Amino acid sequence: MQGDTREVDQTVADMMPGEDEIQQRLHYLELTADDVALLRHIHPLLQPRLPAVIAAFYRHLLEIPVLQALLSDPVVLDRLHHLQGAYFKTLTAGEYGSDYVRHRLRVGLAHQRIGLEPVWYIGAYRKYLGDLAPVLHDILRDRPAQFISTYNALMKVVSFDMGLALDTYIQAGRQQLRASEARFRAAFGQAAVGLAQVTADGRWLRVNRKLLDILGYDEDEMLAMRVPDLISPEDWQIDAPLLQALANGDLQTSAREKRYRCKDGRLVWVKATVTAMQPGTLVAVLEDISQRKQFEEELMHLARHDALTGLANRTLLLDRVSQAIAQARRSGALVAMLFLDLDRFKTINDSLGHDAGDRVVIEVGRRLKQSVRDADTVARLGGDEFVVLLADLPHELVAAALAQKILCALFEPMLIQGHELAPACSIGISLYPRDGADGKTLLKNADAAMYQAKALGRGNYQFYCEEMNARTLDRLTLESGLRHAVERGELQLMYQPQIDLASGKMIGAEALLRWQPNGQRLVMPDAFIAIAEETGLIVSIGEWVLRTACSQQVAWHRAELADVRVAVNLSARQFRQHGLDAMVARVLADTGCPASYLELEITETVLMERPDSAAQTLQRLSDMGVQLAIDDFGTGYSSLSYLKRFPIHALKIDRSFVCDIPADTDDAAIAGAVIALAHSMGLTVVAEGVETVQQRDFLRELRCDLAQGYYFSEPISATSLANKFIHGEIQK
Ligand SMILES: Nc1nc2c(ncn2[C@@H]2O[C@@H]3COP(=O)(O)O[C@H]4[C@@H](O)[C@H](n5cnc6c(=O)[nH]c(N)nc65)O[C@@H]4COP(=O)(O)O[C@H]3[C@H]2O)c(=O)[nH]1
Predict the structure, then answer these.
(1) Going by CA atoms, what residue is nearest to atom 43 of ligand 1?
(2) Ligand 1 atom closest to Cα of 525?
(3) What distance in Å separates the CA atoms of residue 409 and residue 363, rounded to the nearest whole number?
(4) Which of 4, 186, 217, 693 could bridge across to 221 with cysteines, CB 3.0–4.6 Å?
């Protein structure tokens, strides 16, 4: 309340007219000394009559519903009543100097502040004058000649008052405008976002502190420029018509994100929201969104790149392929996709750990990037799979040359955790338009070609061809069928006898796996062992083989094949499988097969991959009493002396050295040397793939211990083997 009074006092002081102006106004209203004398005359006579006139004045005001609401507070009404009463008392007192004016202004302000519109206020004066006329007439009944001049004098003072009342309303309006302008200026100046007033043609009319901070200019520099001086021509091309539409009132608001050039040359991302306040006046809110944009860009980068290598990921790759295809469609060039898979990457991961694996992947990514042009894309799809995309290719030979270059680049050994690794890779190549019209098809076909490259011995590249698709399909069918082969009882073992060449007696049989999917033809191991290896299914399949073969050995033992040993193949993955020895021990215990009647065959290549840990595994198996044989001997690169490190019992000479003896003198010499050396090391020698009597005789002459092959028997079922043995058909 005190604040209110102070404000009213201030407003009154601000608007008080000077003495001269008061006199001028009174002069203009022709208020004369005679008028003043007439009013002074009626003044004392009027006082007793005033309360009724004032009451009628407010009654009249309160007849209007809007005013009832305004004057509903009895305290306010009482105050106004009091003020108005005091005023009416001074109206005819004859003193119209500054005190009178000040009081008049206070009354006017009091009404203005409660929201009483001038129209009602002035209208109430009319009521006052109307009600006062008969009162005056009565007071002057003795001097009727003075009525008109007195009433006229009263009219002049009331007009003077009405002028002052209107002044209060106008002044208050002005003050409100000033206050709201001040508030706007403060808000504009101190806003936490950039604010500007602009014209339709992009001139800055007013800019706030924050905007100057964002862009680094001072106010004068800013106001001397236009929006197009700070944004790219492309952005201005979009903005210019928008500003025009906003200025014309065709558009209410527009919001766009664009980059502004700062004074120091930096580009900042700004979200500019422009609104038409009144036609022609545009207010722009400019927010610095650089941080958000940077964050978005980082997210975008993460979403489109491989975290480990920083190379493109599948999403970005497919994007780039689409672009490359669109461009090739116009230019008639080729697009090539090279699908790379590291050979034996799993071995690195398993033996040296994932850190080493990661470092190999990073190094491979780096070498790939080095091998291609900047315009080409190198992507990592995950694991050890990479794709190189070559756009705008003149000829497929260029893709082949690059594949060769990549093979060479990866052939250079890399030093990882003190180990020299040279992770060879297999590459499959697909070409647009020949092998597919979209990224996904090209990728699928390059993948199929890569599988082909792997199947052809790894470390090479292959172009995609139609038949690969069929092969891939075959592979997928095999893979899904194989998953259920054990539980569906679709696997079976065949046995091939191993003959002691000196006595002609069968002393063992090699278990060979067959798969007979329901209602389909028999599948040979070469067609599915590799798949079982890659998918890990070999672990459960292998255990099934071992258990079945050991049970079979026990069954034979109970029948008449008392001393027949059973030989079981172990694949690379099985051999490296954690807990292999425990699994073997468990199977032997479960089946009751004596360890010495089980022979495990491991290929030479598997042993040579990681000789140290292979020696340990072999030692544990040998300690259990299990017999160990090296399969396919001669196909790897190990020397006999190296094999001394392994606790093995037998060597199986690979079929390829047997098939051409005795005619091929080289093979004959090799076979002879291997047998002699193996004997010198105390190893038993088994010749594989003996098909003819000549081969048998020759091997017997070379003192080879055992032989197996079609000459003696093809792999046959356990029952057939037992029958043949009992009937003496196998002995040769
Ligand atoms: N041309 C010719 N071939 C002969 C002759 N005698 C035997 N063979 C074949 O030579 C292969 C010998 O087995 P492997 O070298 O261990 O080679 C095996 C072995 O590495 C793998 N394999 C077979 N069964 C299993 C198994 O249960 N587990 C694992 N991990 N691998 C197995 O599959 C390979 C192929 O097995 P199969 O197709 O049964 O082929 C067998 C056998 O049928 C002959 O006189 N002439």
Answers:
(1) 715
(2) 33
(3) 11
(4) 217
Highest-confidence range of 593-602, 639-648, 718-727, by mean pLDDT?
593-602
Helix, strand and coil in the chain, % to nearest 5:
55, 20, 25
Task: Give me the interface pTM, i.e. the ipTM.
Answer: 0.95
Most confident of 111-115, 180-184, 292-296: 292-296
Atom of ligand 1 nearest to the CA of 601: 16
Between CA 436 and CA 378 the distance in angstroms is: 20
Give one DSSP letter per residue of 199-215, joined into a string. Answer: -TT-BEEEE-HHHHHHH
Integer Cα distance of 449 and 374 in angstroms:
25
Return the closest-CA partner of residue 311 out of 372, 355, 356. Answer: 372
Give the residue from 261, 241, 245, 264 showing the smallest Cα distance to 253. 245
d(CA 167, CA 157) in angstroms, rounded, equals 15
Residue 250 per-residue DSSP state: S
Query: Which run of H or of E encompasses 179?
Result: helix 145-190
pLDDT confidence of 436, banded at 50, 70, 90? Answer: very high
Name the residue among 271, 275, 288 with its Cα closest to residue 215: 288
Nearest to 505 by CA among 730, 231, 269: 730
CA-derived radius of gyration, the chain: 54
Maximum pairwise Cα distance, the chain = 173
Closest to 454 (Cα-Cα) out of 368, 339, 336, 572: 339
Q: Of 492, 516, 534, 569, which is best to mutate to test ligand 1, by the most ligand atoms within 8 angstroms of its C-beta? A: 569
- For residue 719, how far is its CA from the centre of ligand 1 (angstroms)? 19
CA distance 166 to 195: 37
The alpha carbon of 424 and the centre of ligand 1 are apart by a number of angstroms equal to 28
- Give SS3 for 315: helix
CB 462 within 8 A of CB 452: yes
**Cβ of 631 below 6 Å from ligand 1:** yes
Question: How many other C-beta atoms are found inside a 10 Å radius of the C-beta of residue 109?
Answer: 22
Which H/E stretch holds residue 509? strand 506-515
Q: How far apart are CA 96 and CA 711, in angstroms?
A: 146
Whether cis (ω within 30° of 0) applies to the bond prior to 647 is no
Rounded to whole angstroms, how far apart are CA atoms 355 and 358? 5
- What domains are there in the chain, each with its CATH number? 2-184 (1.10.490.10), 191-293 (3.30.450.20), 305-464 (3.30.70.270), 480-726 (3.20.20.450)
pTM score, whole prediction? 0.49
Q: How far apart are CA 58 and CA 636, in angstroms?
A: 120
- Ligand 1 pocket mutation, candidates 512, 690, 711, criterion most atoms within 8 A of CB: 512
**For range 627-651, the mean pLDDT:** 80
pLDDT at residue 403 is higher than 80: yes
C-alpha torsion sign, points 591, 594, 598, 600: positive
Picking from 631, 569, 636, the residue whose alpha carbon sits closest to that of residue 603 is: 631
Tell me what pLDDT residue 709 has: 95
Whether residue 276 contacts residue 250, with contact meaning beta carbons closer than 8 Å, is answered with no
Q: What is the pLDDT of residues 149-171, one digit of tens each?
A: 999 999 999 999 999 989 888 88
Q: What is the residue-averaged pLDDT of the chain?
A: 89
- Ligand 1 atom closest to Cα of 652? 15
Q: Is the CB of 545 under 6 A from ligand 1?
A: yes
Query: What is the DSSP pairing of strand 194-198 with strand 385-393?
Result: unpaired
Half-sphere exposure of residue 407, counting CA atoms within 13 Å on the CB side?
Answer: 16
Token pair recorded at residue 536: 């890990």
Q: Phi, psi at residue 7, to the nearest 5°?
A: -65, -45
Protein residue with its CA nearest to atom 20 in ligand 1? 569
A 10 A CB-CB count for 269 gives 18
Could you give the CA distance from residue 297 to residue 308 in angstroms, rounded to a whole number?
18
Exposed, middle or buried, 2 (CB in 10 Å: 0-12/13-18/19+)?
Answer: exposed
